Amino acid sequence: MEHIRTPKVEQVRLMDRFSNKSTNGTLYLTATHLIFVESSINSSTAAQEIWILHHHIASVEKLSLTTTGCPLVLQCRNFRVVRFVLPKERDCHDIYSSLLRLLRPVSYEELYAFSYNPQQNDQQREEGWQLIDLRAEYERMGVPCDQWQLTDVNRDFKVCETYPRDLYVPITASKPIIVGSSKFRSKGRFPVLTYFYQERKAAVCRCSQPLSGFSARCLEDESMLQAISKANHNSRFVYVMDTRPKLNALANRAAGKGYENEDNYSNIRFQFVGIENIHVMRSSLQKLLEVIGTRSPTMSDYLVGLESCGWLRHIKAVLDAAVFLAQAVTLEGASVLVHCSDGWDRTAQVCALGSLLMDPYYRTIKGFMVLIEKDWISFGHKFADRCDQLDGDPKEVSPIFTQFLECVWQLSEQFPQAFEFSEWFLLQIHEHVHSCQYGNFLGNNERQREELQLKERTHSLWASLLGEKHNYLNPFYNPAYNVEHPVLEPSTLPYHFKFWRNMYHQFDRSMHPRQSILKTILTLKDKSAKAESTLQALENRLCQLGVTPVVTSDPAAPPPSRDQRSNPKALPPRPNSLILGAPVNHKEEQRRVEEQDDEVGEEALENTDTERTVEGSSGTESRKQSYDELEGTYNELAKEEPAVVSLEFGVARMTC
Amino acid sequence: MDKQIGAGAGAADGAGPNRKPRAQGTGSSSNGDGLDSPTGSHVEWCKQLIAATLSSQMTHSAPADPNRENRTGRRPDWLVSKRLPYRNLPALRYGAQLKMSQNEVPLLPGENVHITVKDVMYICPFSGLVNGTLTITDYKLYFIGVEQESPFILDVNLGAISRLETISVPNQGENTKGLELVCKDMRSPRFAYKTEENHPDVVKVLSQHTYPLTHSMPLFAFLYKEQFPVDGWKVYDATAEYKRQGLPNESWTISKINSSYELCDTYPSVLVIPTNISDEDIRRVAVFRAKHRIPVLSWIHPETQATIVRCSQPLVGPSDRRCKEDERFLQIIMDANAQSHKLTVFDARQSSVADTNKAKDGGYESESFYTNVDLNFLEIPNIHVMRESLRKVKDVVYPTIDEAHWHSAIDQTHWLEYIKLLLAGAVKVADKLESGKTSVVVHCSDGWDRTSQLTSLAMLMLDSHYRTIQGFQVLVEKEWISFGHKFSSRVGHGEDNHSSSERSPLFVQFMDCVWQMTRQFPAAFEFNELFLITVLDHLYSCLFGTFLYNSEQERTAQEVQTKTISLWSYINSQPEDFTNPFFVDYEHHVLYPLVSSRHLELWTAYYARWNPRMRPQVPVHQTLKELLFVRAELQRRLEELQKEAAAHSLSSSSEHSPSHTGTPLHSAV
After folding, report:
1. Which chain A residue lies closest to B80 (C-alpha atoms)?
2. How far apart are CA B490 and CA B548, in angstroms?
3. Pick from B594, B597, B620: which is nearest to A297 by CB?
4. Which pLDDT band, with edges at 50, 70 and 90, does B174 fall under?
5. Who among B408, B640, B658 is closest to A304 (CB)?
6. pLDDT of B268-319, one tens digit each?
7. Mean per-residue pLDDT for A429-447?
8. Which residue among B311, B444, B513, B542 is the active-site one?
9. Interchain contact, B591 vs A481, CB within 8 Å
């Protein structure tokens, strides 16, 4: 609190990013959040609130004073960009300097996770941390088995401090082999099992680059690969995927690192995949954000910008690698060893996506959590450095995990029936990777997390996400689809890679479509559920009256309870998602209690009166502006609409 | 499910009617699962969609593809060939249903086989050579692979062929000739065949039937003998449509002045013009407007009485000619709308081009002569630019896609840029009417290309009626067909003059704009993507009379309505296939699409549909249809039970009335 000099500023204007509109309100600065509360014009509409967690702010910039006030621009890690105009320069400066300090925590203890308390007791918190059990996950895959075993070699993080304690290796790999191999690998990250494809006994292993230089050899490392190869009887060889471009690998060789020489290792097939490094990815995202931040780009600006920033090309490269991995394992039954330089960025992406393509379990909500816990958290993707949790080296920051989430989203666009979770789930995970509100993503590896005693001092994100699972369900999910298509075969033609508007424009109201298919489906599901329970109630009533109703094929519905029906809280809650439309405000919820019956999703039908309604950009506004700016206007004349979008409440509820 | 989905893929490539009318003839109930079950109709729907979106280019016979050895690279061929078996197998089952032996060609009523050539090689750009038999009828070119198991089928409507080109085929022997069919629908299949002395020349036969008009033969639409239960020619009745809009009223009248096409030979016979203007004055106005296309009403706003009026350019010329009657005519149009004392003229052309036109005796309304008139140029390039742009789109998507430069390649076609211009122009027109309450006059040079695009798009935004299946048909019939968009010249039905500068894909561009709107408002349109694609397919096919000829006058002279069948007969006989399950009638809603570059995208489901890796997005609709079915079932049972409850309970208490569960989202399930 000692950094906060001005806790409250009134008469602040919030400028819309893509139009000339603005809203007036009050800005509050708290120890954890920056809050903007819109001054409500009339009491009937709930005031809009924006809560911005300090950890989410990537940069804050004070622009030079104008006639209308002093502008303050915030760029957030969840791609929110806000521009406030404060009436007095002094206030602006105070807020600015407070924020500068607040958004650069120097020690882990300053992070929100250590002060965040969702009103759970210790037992609930422990249960939250026990939700994901990686030993159980390996058992699910069928490991340990006759070829693979759990090794205790890294019990004390002695062999590799960035690996987890529990590691799975081939039974023929003895301790000396493991230790020898780890000495020959960057950061000691020797080959270990990450996914086991039971059907063909093929394994996906991961490691870091070998320290081969131009000619160095290591017999233990060679026998390690031999052991992996022998553990799979289906194939005579192991694929070794180096996910780097060949040029980068060659450059590493000059530094005494490098890649496997096919002549030294028997039975390997070596392959470069060509995913660029973290620096390329960082600047690519930066360019993408510049392109999409343009207020009214021409078609050419946009298309050429989208291509030259290379973002979608990188996404495609990652997916291509994952497709290669999945095909090698499922079709050829070959084991694959994946590495990059250190084996914690590109390797994590490719292994996780490959497993997602092969195993329907990872496409469920729980399974996806397990996947992230396994391939990202436990194997030491450096979340603290990559997501800039503490004031660290800016060169270490890179959107590697964001890229992974986007790949999953691109897949879910191609296979709408294959995923149990919706886009909203991915966005929430992304939100919290940066929020530092839960302990899961803090630190760089398991060892560090244990030192921080995160399980004792913070809460787990997975518990909270599972608690509101209903918000993240994909209405198109069809388990039967995954039975028929256990292995997904995505097409990687360039036009299948779309710009993820809901991620990068999540907080820009004017960028969202006005009508949502998702919402229609959810409403329909809601209604069916209601009809079912009414049906049951009627049948019960008939029974009471002594009549046996003609029972035709009965839909499986839970026994009805009247309290349930009359209690609006028992209605399937409306997810507060941006994809699903109108924000659910406190006041709105109040109203819903009063008029519960005609609420849910009837907006579209309400408009059957003869009044003409304008959808899309409002005409009256547009005449004042040039027509190119039509695209940026958000129309408030339109009635509440299936998918007029806002997330503000969602964020507020999540972060406080 | 997949097997079922695949059923249509092989049998009905390209155009639906090859198959669908037959199913009608035999009765759809014989399909096993009838169309009333959601799965049944969905199967049909999928079949249609896949028929339209997937090419039978996907061959099963891809012989041990050479790229297979290249284990290290990505393997698109593998992806293709693996998916094929279950796509093509059921084609056989379908063939059996039609009681045809495998090598027979499915024929439409009235269709005849003209030549069958064996040992033809189809040079598939995706999976190499396919050996098979080529049949040419008076409607289509039909190629069937020799492989017994799951024959490869390629079916091209002759109408879709733009030009025939001889190509060289290396390594196939002396007498082998190559043939490339450059098509209007974004593909160019290639064949290699052997020439033999005593055989008639395939190319000659093909060209004869591809260009029947050049060879003084009738178009196939005049030979087609299908019977449909619905008569599509009844869809559009000009007087009824104007009546729906509330016309005539005190300011506007339905005029018979052009009943015998004397005033203007490219206009329809029924025109709506201002009430208080004499026939004599109209004739003077006609002389002052290019091709005599006088300002006439297209649409009137139900509340403000603001109107969309269309015409051609005024013949001002370099000497700034004036026409008092024309000036007065526009004044009357302005006066007919009491809400505004202005009139806005939208000239679709680029202002520089309009100036050039002025030097060549054309021109535009001068704001100093026409009082209270605002003149706006929408800066849309002409038909030649559009033709060139779409040609570039074809180069980008067919046969192969340059993966590294996808976006910049699209950019270089400028296609989306023009889509953006058109949509933005239409939004301006619609907004002027809706918010500005001002009448607008839209014209370009002749008032039959860009003008049709703009008025019809603006009307689609303003009037929810045009967003229904029937309403859209009315819109096309009215703004495009009756107002003389020169379909015959722009498409080149049955004519050999493929290099004609008259050709241009203006209607395709319009449909693309409609598709962009359906993307932004997925619940506002009653029709689905298949509908749009089907209409475009039959724009070229010459199977139906709908898009033939340049004007109403020509159509009347050729007795199109009595001698051919309307495309709408086909579509309206099976509306369930073309219905958007998400449709909610947004009545009285004005829809302004966002024209930002972030919201426009290339319609790959149409332009890139011949690529075998194209993946149709079916499942989402399937989910909805199932849900709707479940709900209908629940609703039915609810009603039953309620009746029963009412009968047994004296005090049928109000708590049991499930009044809010039964509002239908849409009626055509």
Report:
1. A491
2. 11
3. B597
4. confident
5. B408
6. 999 999 998 999 999 999 999 999 999 999 999 999 999 999 999 999 999 9
7. 94
8. B444
9. no
Q: How far apart are CA B104 and CA A547, in angstroms?
A: 61
- Catalytic residue, candidates A92, A340, A387, A436: A340
In chain B, whose CA is at the least distance from the CA of A510? B594
- Where helices occur in B152-231 by DSSP H, the ranges are 202-210
Q: What is the SS3 assignment for B141?
A: strand
Give CB contacts under 8 A, 24+ apart, made by B71-79: B71/A269, B72/A269, B72/A271, B74/A320, B74/A323, B74/A324, B74/A492, B75/A327, B76/B613, B77/B126, B77/B127, B78/A327, B79/A489, B79/A491, B79/B613
Assess whether pLDDT exceeds 70 at residue A256: yes
Q: Is the peptide bond before B248 cis (omega within 30 degrees of 0)?
A: yes
Three-state SS at A26: strand
pLDDT of A605 reads 35
Tell me how close the Cα of A556 comes to any Cα of chain B, in angstroms: 12
Query: Would the pLDDT of A364 be above 50?
Result: yes
Chain A nearest-CA distance from B589, in A, is 5
What is the spatial order of strands in the sheet that B128-137 belongs to? Answer: B153-157, B140-145, B128-137, B113-124, B190-194, B176-183, B161-167
Distance CA A285, CA B90 (A): 46
Contact (Cβ atoms closer than 8 angstroms) between residue B614 and residue A494: no
pLDDT at A214 over 70: yes
Could you tell me the two tokens for B534? 């089907």
Note which residues in 403-462 of chain B have CB less than 8 A from chain A: 403-408, 410-411, 414, 416-417, 420, 424, 427-428, 431, 434-436
**Cα–Cα nearest to A88, from A6, A32, A3, A30:** A6
Element (H, E) at A205: strand A202-207
Q: List chain A residues with CB under 8 Å of B522.
A: 513, 515-517
State the pLDDT at residue A558.
35
| Residue B317 Rama label (left phi>0; alpha psi -120 to 50; beta) | left
How do A70-76 and B439-443 pair as beta strands?
A: unpaired
Residue in chain A nearest B523 by alpha carbon: A515
Q: Alpha helices, DSSP H only, in A13-88?
A: none
Neighbours of A324 (CB within 10 A): 22
CA distance B528 to B46: 12
Kindly state whether B611 is in contact with chain A, defined as any CB-CB distance less than 8 angstroms: yes
Tell me how far apart the terminal alpha carbons of chain A are, to the nearest angstrom: 17
Distance between CA atoms of residues A136 and A144, nearest Å? 11
The position carrying tokens 């219905």 is: B579
Write the CA distances from B336 to A408, B251, B367, integer angstroms. Answer: 58, 6, 20
Which positions in chain A touch B613 (Cβ < 8 Å)? Answer: 491, 493
Distance between alpha carbon A232 and the CA centroid of its chain, in Å? 34
A:B CB pairs within 8 Å = 252
Q: What was the pLDDT predicted at A508?
A: 85
> What number is the average pLDDT over the span B420-449?
95
Residues B349, B363 contacting (CB under 8 angstroms)? no
Whole-model pTM? Answer: 0.81
Question: With contact defined as beta carbons under 8 Å apart, do A434 and A405 qualify?
Answer: no
Q: What is the pLDDT of residue B91?
A: 28
Per the annotation, the verdict on A218 as an active-site residue is no
Question: Is the Cβ pair A537, B656 closer than 8 Å?
Answer: yes
What 3-state DSSP class applies to B473? helix
Distance CA A521, CA A518 (A): 5
- CB-nearest to A515 from B406, B521, B594 is B521
* Of residues A502, A592, A655, the one with CA closest to residue A49: A655
Residue A615: the pLDDT is 62
